[in-house]
Fold this protein.
Amino acid sequence: MSLPKLSRRSRILLIIAAVIILILLLGSRLLDTYVDWLWFGEVHAQSVFSTVLVTRIVLFFVVGLLVGGALAISLTIAYRNRPVFVPVSGADDPLARYRSVIIGRIRLVGIGIPLLVGLIAGANAQGDWQVIQLFLNGTSFGQKDPQFGNDIGFYAFTLPFYNWLLGWLFITVVLSFIGSLIAHYIFGGIRLAGKGGQLAGPARVQLAITVGIFVLLKAAEYFFDRYNLLLSDRNPLFNGATYTDLNAVLPAKLILLCISVICAIAFFVGAFLRNIQLPAISLVLLILSSILVGAAWPAVLEQFSVRPNANDKEAMSIQRNLDATKQAFGLNNVQYKTVSGQPDATSAQVSADKTTIPNIRLLDPNVLSPTFTQRVGRENFYGFPAKLDVDRYTVGNTTQDYIVAAKEINTAGLTGNQTSWINEHMVYTHGNGFVAAPANTVDRALNDANSSSDGGYPVATTSDTQNPDGSGIDVKQARIYYGELASSYAIVGGTKGQAPGECDTATDCNYLYNGSGGVPVGGLFNRLVFATQYGERNILFSSNISDNSKIMYNRDPRTRVSKVAPWLTVDGDPYPAVVNGRIKWIVDGYTTLNNYPYSEQTQLGEATNDSLNGVAKQGNSSLNYIRNSVKATVDAFDGTVTLYATDDKEPVLNAWEKVFPGLVKPSSDISPDLRAHFRYPEDLFKVQRDLLAKYHVNDPHQFYAQQAFWSVPQDPTQEGATAANATGVANQPGYYVLAQSPGEATPTFQLTSGLTGQVRQYLASWMSVSSDPKDYGTIRVLQLPADAGGVTQVDGPVQVQNKFQSDPQVASDRTLFTNPSVTAIFGNLITLPVGNSFLYVEPVYIQQRTVNSYPQLAKVLVSYGGRVGYAPTIQAALAQVFGAGTTTGTTTSPGQGLPPTSPTSPPASSTTPTPPSTGGNSAALNKAVADLGAAFDKLTAAQKAGNFADQGAALAQLDAARKEFEAATASATPPSTPAKPGS
């Protein structure tokens, strides 16, 4: 029976329907491709786009032709060698009907099925373009594995390709075998009727040769499996080839390799000798050998020889794992130092400290985003990320850490008529200003946690288009078109008088973008493309869009770096920095591997997960090698993406530089001003911290015993973290601080974290990594004695938090913690080395239970040697711990040459701010303080009256008073911390 033939009209209609379906399926993909092509042109990286696209296309066709072509050949051979006469079992024989249908549509079946299979295979293979490019451009590591003596580059670049290739060859052979088996069965080459069935000669030859090829590929797999053993996860304690792998599995692979070759030859010979017994016997031999030699013997050796003596048997493998893991994760040059833990610091020593104590950070960037939004954001279309950032700057000859943020456009805050399409995408297009607040300073102490109190706020100041050096940090271009909050597209620029104008402030909406960022959207074709892309007809018909208009999209810094360098793993926390007068987003990029021999496999998502809000969470991919090889910058004004190498000799980076020549600039191109704002990246720190908890141990026997392991502490400020049976609590993040660690001559900006004993809460060590250009990346660990007890055992973060909450001073403060009108928020619990022990400092914030309330610093908690201080200021809290008379350079009023609030960002409160503490008795300083107070009074009165002219005059007067105050402070009091270059 055959299917009816289609008429010419029916065939035409079917072709038209197929074309429409194809357009629907591919149209969106083609549109996305063109939009991406335009975007890569904007960032001058079309070579990246074309290289990736060409590699994907080549892979698609090569693998598609391999799999589909092999299946087509297999089906063709089976069809052409079908029996001439095939007995039919009866009138209702189903095989007869299938044969007639297939023969009637032989081209459709013979071409269509392989074509469909090839398309599916090619679509799956094209995603592996990175494996191919690394194989073609791999470099040498200059290090060899301890077992076979191969360069590490073989495992990083070559072995993954061979494994990938074998995988597709196996798929090809299996599909060819299945296709030929079904074809021979349908066309009568294989018959199941009768005793034992019947197998035609051509079918036997084809199937035997196909199986022989499969077994030959299996022999090749056994060969490469020897090298894959160095990535073994047989032992849950460590990765790498174990004693059993080396002494049982490795010899078994060689034995099975030889048996597989013999078995493959048997199949080839049996195919032409018309004898299936020989290949059948060899196949049974291979299966039995796989069971006995490949599985049973290693299991017996593991059970009866290795496990009873594992600490000795596995010592060599553990040592290899220790060495490889430290090398792969950059832990081979950690500087260890033992401290006694004895709390021996005195009041005089604390008062004399001019580095760590004066720079104690009181402001928590994870808490204060709402405070910045309300007190500095001013207009409702500005906003800040959920997590602010910490960086260091030199202002007034004093280097200290600041809480910093870019004042970005936040279209989610638009209301009413502001939410029209023109306003959202053409008027409110950019942010304006760089905000900085000294991390150790608030405007004044909050002495009473009730709704009428004011104070405890950051001394946040802004450098923007109206006041470029308002924060003491000069910003030449303050407009921010690219940032973390820029989630939608913006159409900018255009012709004056036709474009609506872009708002710098609520009262100044006359700016038209004139930078290099964006894709031209003035032409009709591009307008049609983007109208289709975003499903917005206004893009096509709006008269506000002119020939000079541009459209900005993909504006998030992480997204831009990820697209320009798709081979990088990007850190979850970009941060803004002022570099040569421009606001730049700095994004850390990692080169990673998951096939470094003997190195420990780490789940990136688990290792980097902590209590921080507002940072991108990493996917839980497995890796066993990581380097912060690239520092990327994204210009906040024009979106320019620049990649800099931090290690010009890093092998993985060198391989990618061969793939994309000229994309990454050498480290010599990094300017001193940019390098001064490099921070050690948080995600890399968390991965290293997680591994250092185990890999600080150097002796294989101690490592196997696991007694000396440490743990990453839970964040004790989280809900329920201090409970005895607390589970599921996020880890404590690392904290950026400006401090002087033991062994350092000067204070450095560093990323720090405590580590506790394994499944215990006492402090076992303290880890810090320098961000200072002179010794960037140096890891220092202060270890406490493992047998410490009594007074020398230092409490860990959870224990300290428990002491804070149970301290009589804290428990009795009902005004703060039981006040129904406020919520208490525990800030970051920072651990700092002081003397031979560690000082804990934790700010406590309150937030009114009202709609537009925001956190303010209420108290400061301090702990040292088991003693607890609790006071409105850090000075008073330290005095409670170290004794009366303890002084410090840390301020609760603007003592670093900065006024209490930004001239461009006055506080919303009508209360006149308290003038800064003078720090001296000079007449000039007293006059400057008086002028500041008078300027604030005038500004407040002008705000209440709504008189913009008076506000402008008051701002100018305030700026003059600020500069007068800075000059008077500099002449009256020397800096409390040494200045460092690289602001």
User: Anything to note?
Assistant: The chain has 28 helices and 32 strands. The radius of gyration is 35 Å. Residues 8-42 form the longest helix (35 residues).
